[in-house]
C-alpha cells in the first residue's frame, strides 16, 4: 500500500482558485472548517505557479469563469495532465459543464455552494 | 398505370396528404360561375349553424377557391389561410371552438389579421376520387360549445349534398364528351375516309383509333394503333407516321401493363374508362377516356396533365415543408429533411443549403440531400473556383444555369462542376436581416431547362427556409442572453451568500447561517430550471429535481405527475417550499431514517381557466411526526404554498408527514 503524504503528519492541503475575493474568502472558510489547510490563487496562472512550487497539494477547488488566458476548465485539464494524483472540484454560477468537458474523476458543484456538500465531497475525494 | 400521386414522396415517407390531390381537377369546377345549388347549401349551413359565414371551399394546387360563399368577400385565398386544408388532409369533420387556441390555426392570417375568424367547423367533401374540399361554417367570435350534435350532422349531410352536386356536374360533362366522341366514331361510318380523318386530325386532344389483339384463348395481350392524330404525336413525343399499324408494346416496349390491357379492356366491358396516368419512360402524365366503338375497336381521347400533376406535387411539398418548419424550429436535422423534400419535388439530383462565410469569398455547404449516384458535397468551397457566380448571389439574384459546360459564367470552370456531377444548377440566395447569408442549392446531373414554375417553387421554399433559419438564429441568440442572465443572477446569489456569511459570522448561529445559505441554493436551482425553459417557463419536474439535487436527496424521492409549465414566480416559491419540506424531512421526517422515502405526486383538476394544480408530499418509513410548535420562516414558507397565496394543508400522521398544496393553474403559469 502506498502511503500518501497527507497520511503522514500534517493536514491535507487544498488549493482554492477563485477570482472574486469575497467568494474566495467564503470557500477558504468552508475548507478550513472541514480541517483542511488552504492555499489560495486568484487565477489559473497563479494556481499553476503555486502547484509548480508546492508538491503537497492534494485537491484543487476552482471556479470556471476567471480572467486570463486559462479558465477553470483548462486549469482542471492541465492539473489532471501534469499532476494526475491531485483531485479536482469545479464550480461555476454559469451553465453546468458537460461531463466530456471535465477531466476524469473531477466533480462539479453549482454555485451558490452548499457548504455541507463541498465538505462531503472533499472528504470523499480524500478518503 | 399509376394513380395521380407524388410517388417519390410516398417512398421517402414524407407524404402527409393521403388524398388524391388532383381529384378536384376531375370536376372542372375551379373558377366557374356561382350556381344556385351550391349557394343554397351555404345559405342553409349558415342558418342551421347560426353563423355569419359559410363556404364551399375547394383545394387547388396553390389556393383554396370558393364555389359558394355567404358572408365572406374573397373568391379565393392562399393555402396558408386555409383551415379547410386540415379537413381535407384529415378527411373528417373538424370543429375548432377557438382558432387562436389550436396550433393548426393560431398562426393563420385570417385568424391573426382581418377578419379575425375565431370559430370554425368544416365537413369534408369526400368524392370517389378523394376529399376535394370542405363545406365550412365560420364565426368571428369563439364558440366554446362548438356545434350541437344536430348541427354537426346537418353540416355533414349538406356536405354530402354538395358532393352529389359535384358528381352531377361531372356526369353531364362526361355525357357531352361521350357524345362528341361517338359522333366522331359514327362519322367514320357515314362519311368518307378523308372527311373522317379531317375531323379528328384537327382536334387539340390526342386521339387514338385502336384495335385490341387477342391470343388463341381470346385474351387481350396487346393493341394496335390503327390511326392517331397530329396532337397525339406532340403529346407523346413520337412520330405519328411511325406508329400507325404498330402495337403499343412495339412502340413503347417498357410501357406499363395498365396502358395495354387496362385500356383495351373497354372492348370487353363496353364501359368507357377514365384515366389519369403516367408513362414511366417519359415521366409524362395524361388524363383521358377510352371507349368501345364496336367489335374489338376502341378510341382514346386524352390530353397531357404533367404540369398540373407537377404543380400538385410541389404544392404538397410546400405544405410538408411548412409543417416541418413549424414543428422542428429550424434544427440542422430539419434542414436536411427540408432539402430532400425540395429536391424530390423538382426531380433534382441534389438539394442542399450553403452558408456564406464572413468575408463571403467562400461558402460552407451542408451535406443536404442527393441521389445515391451523386458525390457528397458537404464542405467549404471557393466561389472563384466555380466561375463568375458570386457577385449576383451576394446581390440577392437567383442563379439559373441550364448547362454549366456551355453557360458563359461557368464554362471555364466546368471541371470543378463536373467533379460535383452538377450540370444544371439553380442557386437561390436568401436574405437574413438584409444580407445574403444562405443559398438554396439545387443540382441536376444532366443539362436541364428549369421551368418558371420550378424556379418559383424553389423561391417559395427558400423563403420558408429563411423563416426557419431566422427563427433558429433568434433562439440561439436568446439562449446566449438567457445563459448570461442566469450566470449573473447565480453569481449574485453566491456573492450574497459570501457577504452574509462573512458579515454574520459570530453574530448568528451556524445552523441559522446554514439554513440561509441552503435557501439561497434552492433559489439558484430554480434559476437553472428557468434557464432550461428559456425564462418563459420552467417544467415542474426540473424545478423539483433541481432543489432535491441541491440538498442531495433526489434519489430518495419518487417524483411523478404530468408536465406542468411554471412561470418564474411560481418556480421560485415552489423551490423554496420544496426546499423547506426536504430539509425538514432530513432533520425530523422520513429522510432522517435510512429507509424513509418521500413521494411527490401532482395532478391537474378541471380544465382551462378553472384548472387547479394539486401537489402531494407524502413521507413514509420515517419516525412518527408531530406538529412543530415553532413558527419560523420555514413553516411560514410552507403555509404560503406553491405560488405564495396559501392553499396548503399539512397533516402529521403516524406514518409520516403528509402535505397537500393547491394552486390555480393560471397562477402557476403566470410569468
TrEMBL record, chain A:
Positions where 4-aspartylphosphate occurs in the chain: 63
Stored SUPFAM superfamilies: CheY-like (SSF52172)
Keyword Kinase on entry: no
Protein name in the entry: Response regulator receiver domain-containing protein
Domain Response regulatory: 13-126
Pfam assignment, any one: Response_reg
InterPro entries in UniProt: Bact_response_regulator, CheY-like_superfamily, Sig_transdc_resp-reg_receiver
Highest taxon in the source lineage: Bacteria
Keywords: Phosphoprotein
Keyword Phosphoprotein (UniProt): yes
Any GO BP: phosphorelay signal transduction system
From TrEMBL, chain B:
Enzyme class: transferase
Any GO molecular function: ATP binding
Segments forming domain Signal transduction histidine kinase HWE region: 484-563
SMART domains membership: GAF, HWE_HK
EC number(s) given by UniProt: 2.7.13.3
GAF domain boundaries: 33-176, 330-479
Keywords: ATP-binding, Kinase, Nucleotide-binding, Phosphoprotein, Transferase
Superkingdom: Bacteria
Reaction(s) catalysed by this chain's protein: ATP + protein L-histidine = ADP + protein N-phospho-L-histidine
Name of the molecule in the record: histidine kinase
Annotated source species: Sphingomonas guangdongensis
Amino acid at each position: 500500500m502506498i502511503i500518501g503524504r497527507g497520511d503522514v503528519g500534517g493536514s491535507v492541503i487544498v488549493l482554492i482558485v477563485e477570482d472574486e475575493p469575497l467568494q474566495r474568502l467564503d470557500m477558504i472558510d468552508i475548507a478550513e472548517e472541514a480541517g483542511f489547510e488552504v492555499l489560495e490563487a486568484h487565477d489559473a496562472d497563479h494556481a499553476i505557479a503555486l502547484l509548480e512550487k508546492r508538491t503537497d497539494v492534494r485537491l484543487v477547488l476552482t471556479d470556471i469563469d476567471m480572467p486570463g488566458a486559462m479558465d477553470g476548465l483548462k486549469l482542471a485539464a492541465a492539473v489532471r495532465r501534469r499532476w494526475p494524483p491531485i483531485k479536482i472540484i469545479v464550480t461555476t454560477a454559469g451553465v453546468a459543464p458537460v461531463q466530456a468537458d471535465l477531466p476524469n474523476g473531477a466533480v462539479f458543484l453549482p454555485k451558490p455552494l452548499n457548504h455541507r456538500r463541498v465538505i462531503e465531497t472533499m472528504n470523499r475525494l480524500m478518503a | 398505370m399509376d394513380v395521380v400521386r407524388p410517388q417519390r414522396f410516398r417512398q421517402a415517407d414524407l407524404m402527409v396528404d393521403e388524398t388524391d390531390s388532383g381529384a378536384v381537377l376531375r370536376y372542372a369546377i375551379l373558377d366557374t360561375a356561382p350556381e344556385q345549388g351550391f349557394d343554397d347549401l351555404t345559405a342553409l349551413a349558415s342558418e342551421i349553424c347560426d353563423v355569419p359565414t359559410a363556404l364551399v371551399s375547394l383545394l387547388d394546387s396553390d389556393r383554396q377557391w370558393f364555389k359558394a360563399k355567404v358572408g365572406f368577400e374573397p373568391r379565393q385565398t392562399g393555402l396558408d389561410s386555409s383551415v379547410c386544408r386540415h379537413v381535407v388532409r384529415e378527411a373528417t369533420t373538424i370543429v375548432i371552438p377557438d382558432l387562436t387556441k389550436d396550433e393548426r390555426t393560431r398562426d393563420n392570417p385570417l385568424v391573426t389579421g382581418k377578419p379575425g375568424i375565431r370559430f370554425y367547423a368544416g365537413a369534408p367533401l369526400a368524392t370517389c376520387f378523394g376529399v376535394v374540399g370542405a363545406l365550412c361554417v365560420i364565426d368571428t367570435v369563439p364558440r366554446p360549445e362548438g356545434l350541437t350534435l344536430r348541427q354537426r350532422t346537418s353540416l355533414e349531410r349538406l356536405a354530402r349534398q354538395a358532393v352529389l352536386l359535384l358528381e352531377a356536374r361531372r356526369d353531364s360533362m362526361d355525357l357531352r364528351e361521350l357524345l362528341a366522341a361517338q359522333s366522331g366514331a359514327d362519322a367514320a361510318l357515314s362519311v368518307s375516309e378523308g372527311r373522317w380523318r379531317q375531323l379528328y386530325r384537327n382536334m387539340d386532344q390526342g386521339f387514338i383509333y385502336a384495335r385490341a389483339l387477342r391470343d388463341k384463348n381470346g385474351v387481350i395481350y396487346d393493341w394496335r394503333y390503327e390511326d392517331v392524330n397530329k396532337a397525339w404525336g406532340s403529346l407523346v413525343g413520337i412520330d405519328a407516321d411511325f406508329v400507325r399499324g404498330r402495337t403499343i408494346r412495339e412502340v413503347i416496349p417498357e410501357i406499363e401493363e395498365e396502358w395495354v390491357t387496362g385500356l383495351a379492356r373497354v372492348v370487353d366491358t363496353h364501359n368507357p374508362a377514365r384515366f389519369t396516368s403516367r408513362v414511366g419512360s417519359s415521366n409524362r402524365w395524361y388524363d383521358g377516356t377510352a371507349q368501345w366503338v364496336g367489335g374489338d375497336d376502341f378510341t382514346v381521347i386524352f390530353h397531357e396533365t404533367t404540369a398540373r400533376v407537377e404543380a400538385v406535387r410541389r404544392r404538397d411539398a410546400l405544405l410538408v415543408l411548412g409543417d416541418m418548419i413549424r414543428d422542428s424550429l429550424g434544427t440542422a436535422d430539419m434542414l436536411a429533411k427540408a432539402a430532400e423534400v425540395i429536391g424530390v419535388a423538382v426531380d433534382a439530383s441534389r438539394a442542399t443549403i450553403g452558408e456564406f462565410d464572413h468575408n463571403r469569398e467562400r461558402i460552407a455547404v451542408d451535406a443536404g440531400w442527393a441521389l445515391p449516384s451523386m458525390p457528397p458535397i458537404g464542405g467549404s468551397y471557393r466561389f472563384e473556383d466555380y466561375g463568375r457566380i458570386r457577385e449576383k448571389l451576394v446581390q440577392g439574384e437567383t442563379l439559373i444555369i441550364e448547362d454549366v459546360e456551355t453557360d458563359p459564367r461557368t464554362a471555364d470552370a466546368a471541371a470543378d462542376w463536373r467533379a460535383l456531377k452538377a450540370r444544371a444548377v439553380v442557386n437561390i440566395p436568401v436574405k437574413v436581416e438584409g444580407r445574403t447569408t444562405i443559398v438554396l442549392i439545387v443540382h441536376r446531373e444532366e443539362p436541364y431547362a428549369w421551368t418558371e414554375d420550378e424556379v418559383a417553387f424553389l423561391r417559395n421554399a427558400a423563403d420558408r427556409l429563411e423563416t426557419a433559419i431566422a427563427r433558429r438564429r433568434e433562439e440561439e441568440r436568446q439562449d446566449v442572453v438567457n445563459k448570461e442572465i442566469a450566470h449573473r443572477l447565480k453569481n449574485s446569489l453566491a456573492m450574497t451568500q459570501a457577504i452574509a456569511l462573512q458579515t454574520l459570522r459570530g453574530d448568528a448561529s451556524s445552523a441559522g447561517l446554514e439554513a440561509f445559505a441552503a435557501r439561497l441554493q434552492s433559489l439558484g436551482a430554480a434559476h437553472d430550471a428557468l434557464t432550461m425553459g428559456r425564462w418563459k417557463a420552467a417544467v415542474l419536474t426540473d424545478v423539483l429535481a433541481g432543489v432535491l439535487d441541491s440538498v442531495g436527496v433526489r434519489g430518495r424521492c419518487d417524483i411523478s405527475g404530468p408536465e406542468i409549465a411554471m412561470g418564474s414566480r411560481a418556480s421560485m416559491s415552489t423551490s423554496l417550499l420544496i426546499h423547506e419540506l426536504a430539509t425538514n424531512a432530513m432533520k425530523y421526517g422520513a429522510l432522517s431514517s435510512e429507509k424513509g422515502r418521500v413521494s411527490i405526486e401532482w395532478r391537474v383538476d378541471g380544465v382551462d381557466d378553472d384548472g387547479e394544480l394539486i401537489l402531494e408530499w407524502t413521507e413514509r418509513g420515517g419516525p412518527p411526526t408531530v406538529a412543530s410548535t415553532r413558527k419560523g420562516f420555514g413553516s411560514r414558507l410552507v403555509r404560503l404554498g406553491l405560488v405564495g397565496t396559501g392553499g396548503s394543508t399539512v397533516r402529521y400522521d403516524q406514518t409520516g408527514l403528509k402535505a397537500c398544496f393547491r394552486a390555480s393553474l393560471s397562477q402557476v403559469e403566470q410569468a
